[in-house]
Design goal:
Largest interface: A-B, 24 and 17 residues
Low-confidence stretches of chain A: none
Low-confidence stretches of chain B: none
Structural class of chain A: mainly alpha
Strand order of the largest sheet of chain B: 1-7-6-2-5-3-4
Strand content of chain B: 15-25%
Distance between the termini of chain A: 17 Å
Strand content of chain A: under 5%
Oligomer: heterodimer
Helix content of chain A: over 70%
Largest sheet of chain B: 7 strands, mixed
Radius of gyration of chain B: 16 Å
Number of helices of chain B: 9
Order of helices and strands of chain A: HHHHHHHHHHH
Structural class of chain B: alpha/beta
Order of helices and strands of chain B: HEEHHEHHEHEHEHEH
Largest sheet of chain A: none
């Protein structure tokens, strides 16, 4: 994988993202000026943290190559560490956790060397066999099943699923311009994040009928449908700029990203509710933890990658 | 103390390690540096406790940050003694106070007179990781000598999972650090120790965390 700068259309999209966030920052600043007594600390924090997220994210996409792969590996690392810090673990499994962490550089190495076959089986097959084996060698049987299950679920969610995002970088081959993959990543991440926002806004304004009241009482059918519809429109509009998708496929991509984003979000919500916490961490002020931010991506990244890979690459 | 090596160690080894590998969520950090001299009192789970707390101080205060540490452990061989005394800047203390003839807390008192920030682990040992043991009363002697100096309680969780006693492999976990309001010597040893104990326990209840199963 070579260092490659993304083509102009991708750069223009990045300019668009930065303008959008600048616009949001201006709106928040004006809101604070007009209503100084209203407490908007969380909103202000949220926008500020967005800058901290998109700065490095767009930066590594511009550089591309190994730097971008290392960046995505680090995101997986933070997510896995947050997960291991949240869930109950056994002292006997310390070394097992260490092996689980080692899966991160290896998994991203397959991406860097563009070895798809290994990428797609390494965690579901080899790590799935290796971790229980390591646990058995230690010999602690009390809580074995629960530990084996929770550790592998975390690895699948934070490393295997999220790494699909980085695989988009190496997906386009010779016939595509260098750096074309960065556009696919941008397409996936923008749609996933805007889908979150759209579902929230639609739910807030029209939300009445709850979808999964036991897991996430704030999620409504109105929010879900409005959000997915908005994402489909955005997917249709952005596809010609960033992807090879034709109009019908872009609508389908928007649909699976919209729905997948919702499912990823409520899955992490279910995890949080089970453990009894509100946020997965405090790394990203105004957002919560890193898992709170990448929750939707854990679903959208694999479904989008396999869709576009099957039909286009 | 070798200040140059000390800065190198904390800037190029500990800060990146704490920032990139471990990851700290700290609450009420400002209370940590509200006064100098001060006595910081924390629960003890790992060798990383001191390192992480040191990185929470601004660099200008690193010079006066002095962890109080067990003489029998840290001075047991020359290399470790050199590292502990010159780089980390510990004040060695005897865990068995009855044995020594001179004032066992003498060096601590001198450091406080110089306006330094002492860091004490009154559990006396890392012990069973992530389990709070009862506090030893050395801290009460120190507080009694200088009732004007604030004793700042700190609760830490997570480092005992990352690097517990007797393990040499660091397994990354996020760690939580909660800093509390200062406690002052109240004139009575039992009352003071009780106050300190309940201060740390209430800090522990502020955060949610999963102990080892």
């Amino acid at each position: 994988m070579k260092f490659c700068h993304p083509p102009a259309n991708v750069v223009w999209c990045m300019v668009g993202i930065v303008s959008l966030l600048t616009f949001a920052s201006v709106i928040v600043a004006v809101m604070r000026k007009l209503q100084p007594d209203k407490d908007r600390r969380e909103l202000v924090q949220r926008v500020k943290t967005w800058w901290i997220i998109i700065g490095p994210f767009l930066g590594v996409l511009l550089i591309g190559g190994g730097v971008a792969v290392v960046f995505f590996a680090f995101v997986s690392y933070l997510a896995l560490k947050e997960y291991f810090s949240l869930i109950p673990t056994r002292r006997a499994d310390r070394r097992v956790l260490f092996w689980a962490y080692l899966a991160i550089p290896i998994q991203y190495w397959w991406i860097y060397t563009d070895w798809y076959g290994m990428f797609v089986i390494f965690i579901p097959v080899y790590m799935f066999l290796l971790l229980p084996m390591r646990m058995v060698l230690k010999g602690e049987t009390k809580g074995f099943l629960k530990a084996a299950g929770t550790l592998h679920w975390g690895l699948m969610t934070t490393v295997f699923s999220l790494s699909h995002m980085a695989l988009l970088l190496v997906l386009p081959k010779e016939e595509y311009p260098a750096g074309y993959g960065a556009g696919l990543v941008l397409y996936l991440v923008c749609l996933t994040e805007l889908n979150d926002v759209a579902q929230y806004v639609w739910g807030k304004t029209l939300g009445r009928r709850k979808v999964v009241p036991k897991v996430s009482p704030n999620k409504s059918w109105e929010g879900l449908i409005g959000g997915v519809a908005t994402t489909i429109i955005l997917a249709y509009l952005l596809a010609p700029i960033l992807t090879p998708l034709d109009w019908s496929d872009s609508i389908f991509a928007g649909g699976i990203i919209g729905l997948g984003g919702f499912l990823g979000d409520v899955t992490i919500s279910a995890l949080k509710r089970d453990i009894g916490i509100k946020d997965t961490g405090a790394m990203l002020p105004g957002h919560g933890g890193i898992l709170d931010r990448v929750d939707s991506l854990t679903f959208t990244a694999p479904v989008f990658l396999h869709f576009i890979r099957y039909f286009y690459f | 103390m070798n200040h140059f090596l000390r800065y190198l160690w904390f800037i190029f080894v500990m800060r990146p390690l704490v920032l990139l590998i471990v990851g700290v969520n700290v609450r009420n950090r400002e209370k940590l540096i509200s006064s100098k001299p001060a006595i910081i009192v924390a629960n003890h789970n790992s060798h990383l406790d001191t390192m992480v707390l040191a990185t929470l101080f601004p660099l200008r205060l690193l010079k006066i940050f002095r962890p109080v540490a067990a003489m029998d452990y840290f001075l047991k061989n020359r290399l470790l003694a050199w590292f502990a005394l010159r780089i980390i800047g510990i004040i060695p203390i005897s865990r068995d106070m009855r044995k020594s003839k001179e004032d066992p807390l003498g060096q601590c008192s001198e450091a406080l007179e110089r306006g330094e920030i002492l860091m004490l682990f009154p559990e006396g040992t890392r012990g069973e990781p992530e389990r709070l043991a009862s506090f030893k009363t050395g801290i009460a002697h120190l507080a009694k000598r200088r009732p004007d100096i604030p004793v700042i309680p700190v609760f830490m969780h997570g480092l005992g999972k990352a690097l517990p006693r007797g393990e040499c492999v660091l397994v990354p976990f996020f760690c939580d650090v909660v800093v509390g309001d200062p406690v002052h010597w109240s004139g009575d040893r039992t009352a003071f120790m009780g106050e300190l104990d309940s201060a740390i326990k209430s800090l522990a209840s502020e955060i949610s965390y999963s102990p080892w199963e």
